[in-house]
Amino acid sequence: MTEWYQNAIFYEIHPRAFCDSNGDGAGDLPGLIEKLDYLKELGVDCVWLLPIYPSPRRDDGYDIADYFSIHPEYGTLEDFRRLVTEAHRRGLRIIADLVLNHVSDQHPWFQAARADRHSPYREYFVWSDTAERYAEARVIFLDTERSNWSWDEQAGQYYWHRFYASQPDLNFDNPKVQQAMLEVMDFWLKLGIDGFRADAVPYLFEREGTNCENLPETHAYLKKIRRWMDEHYPGRILLAEANQWPQETRAYFGDGDEFHMAFHFPVMPRLFKALCEGRRTALEWILARTPEIPEACQWCTFLRNHDELTLEMVTEEERQWMWAEYAPQPRMRLNLGIRRRLAPLLNGDTRKILLANALLFSLPGAPILYYGDEIGMGDDLTLPDRNGVRTPMQWQAGPTAGFSAARPEQLYAQPIDTPDFPLARCNVAAQRADPQSLFNRLRALIAVRKRLTDLHGHEPVRWLTDSDERLAAFWRGQLLAVHNLADAQLSLRLPPGDWQDAISGVQVRDVLTIPPFGFFWLLRL
Ligand code: NOJ
Ligand code: CA
Predict the structure, then answer these.
(1) To which H or E segment does residue 229 belong?
(2) Is residue 514 scored above 70 in pLDDT?
(3) Is 293 exposed, middle or buried (0-12, 13-18, 19+ CB in 10 A)?
């Protein structure tokens, strides 16, 4: 039996960017409620909401100032309740970000901690008199931070932070912090949320002499959370954000007693590598290094998300190659990644965008789509940090793209309207009306994937190793998936019998001809 999350289609939403209901120029929860039918239409099963909590937004909400409330711009707790009810009424699920590792420096805990050495909240954070401790821990936000320690004038000590200096790490050695996080989870689970995307989980504990990632103490605490969730809220899920190699990420599944799901970070850059090289080698390589996972668990796979396309899980040589191919201009790069959206990365070539998604849908894992990528939205490189991939969702043509009733200059960011990614084409209304649009073809592909149970569980990938290396051709159960990574027509000699393409319905025998960047999912008739 497969669990609901093992074959769900996930869809990632930035609450600020999706739909503005009250005309203040920024998206909100009531706006999102208005668009739930759209998500149903696309075939989404579960929404992942980026942080919705009060925050000074120095890291766009990943710097939480209050765990028990909604950012006023996004709405109220009542709106959140309604969102959950309305989603569930449509058979949709909602998970939200759970940021365990750190808070905002504006959080009352940190304010109290820095003001008084004897405050009970002092021990909620990690302090030091020198900046020398835990020297083996890497700096993640390389372009902005020089050290994981920052001096706090008021506290008279250094505090530890794995991300921006405005995000002090919590001290998980303190049982009160451990307990506080269970209370946070309890609060949102009681409101009916279906689970959490747990942010930055490798970094919860620190230990001298280690790189402070994936420590046994961290796993022990995460297992405790899971036990507690199973006991009180069975059926709700935990999804791990651990940007690690497969072997390290595998540990976050435990024996099926830690996370239900985890992102598969290293497969993502290799999807892009395979598409650019026009051969399957990189995909074969990473899947061969991907261990099996417990029965009730699942990988989450993705092409893009709200962050830079991270190149942490590739070799130095691969990174340089990926940068050269996919981020030729320096401003396209950020930290160890590429701050561009899917469609611009693939030169707006609908064939390639569909092919990338077809691979995502047919390789193991439950796919996550990033809002706007289903209509091939462009990005805005003039915006700083990762904001260029967080611009308003484009619902229709016109100055505010149907996102808001505000005046265009009041929008928190402008819709994308460039010669390569014109708003007139890159909007939901226009694409709905065109049967051949990216939106409609992707929607159809999602529907097909839902029917094909061979793609839903842990069926391993069995490559057709003697096929042309420009083809990503593999078995998953009874399904024979064939993807042409090259800009050339290729053919494949089929195993004996009559075959039918589950996508187009076309029947074929003996030799399959695959157009440039084309793909087929074949079943025996
Ligand atoms: C990972 C999130 O995806 C990213 O957006 C954020 O900046 C860091 N974690 C810190 O919370
Ligand atoms: Ca609004």
Answers:
(1) helix 216-232
(2) yes
(3) buried
Say if residue 1's pLDDT is above 80: no
pLDDT computed for residue 2 by the predictor: 86
Q: Which amino acid is at 446?
A: I
CA of 280 to the centre of ligand 1 (A): 30
By 3-state DSSP, what share of the chain in percent is helix, strand and coil, each rounded to 5? 30, 20, 50
- Average pLDDT rounded to a whole number, residues 98-122: 98
Q: Which two tokens stand for residue 371?
A: 């809002």
Exactly one of 79, 105, 241, 307 is catalytic; name it. Answer: 241
* The one-letter amino acid at 248: E
Catalytic residue among 12, 63, 199, 307: 199
Query: Could you give the residue ranges of the DSSP H alpha helices within 386-510?
Result: 428-432, 438-451
Helix (H, G, I), strand (E, B) or coil at 218: helix
Beginning with the edge strand found earlier in the chain, give each strand of the sheet holding 479-484 in spatial order.
462-463, 471-476, 479-484, 519-524, 490-501, 507-514
**Alpha helices (H) in 26-102, listed in sequence order:** 29-34, 36-42, 77-89
Q: Show the CA angle centred on residue 247, arms to residues 8 and 140, nearest 5°.
A: 85
Q: Give the residue from 399, 401, 411 showing the smallest Cα distance to 377.
A: 401
Q: Quickly list DSSP for 327-382.
A: --SGGGEETTEE---HHHHTTT-HHHHHHHHHHHHHSSSEEEEETTGGGT----TT
Q: How many CB atoms lie within 10 A of CB 285?
A: 13
| Type of residue numbered 514 | I
Q: What is the pLDDT of residues 422-470, one digit of tens each?
A: 999 999 999 999 999 999 999 999 999 999 999 999 999 999 999 999 9
Q: What is the DSSP letter of 38?
A: H
Which residues' Cβ are closer than 6 Å to ligand 1? 59, 62, 99, 163, 199-200, 241, 306-307
**Distance from residue 60's CA to the centre of ligand 2 (Å):** 16
Q: What is the H or E stretch that residue 495 is in? A: strand 490-501
**241 noted as active-site residue:** yes
Separation between Cα atoms, residue 195 and residue 253, nearest integer Å: 16
Count the neighbouring beta carbons within 10 Å of the beta carbon of residue 206.
23
pLDDT digits (tens, 9 = 90+) for 249-290: 999 999 999 999 999 999 999 999 999 999 999 999 999 999
Distance from the alpha carbon of residue 61 to the mean position of ligand 1, in angstroms = 9
Ligand 1: residue of 13, 105, 148, 199 to mutate (most ligand atoms within 8 A of CB) is 199
What 281-287 contacts at long range (C-beta under 8 Å, 24+ apart), as own/partner pairs, is 281/469, 283/359, 283/363, 283/472, 284/463, 286/246, 287/363, 287/364, 287/461
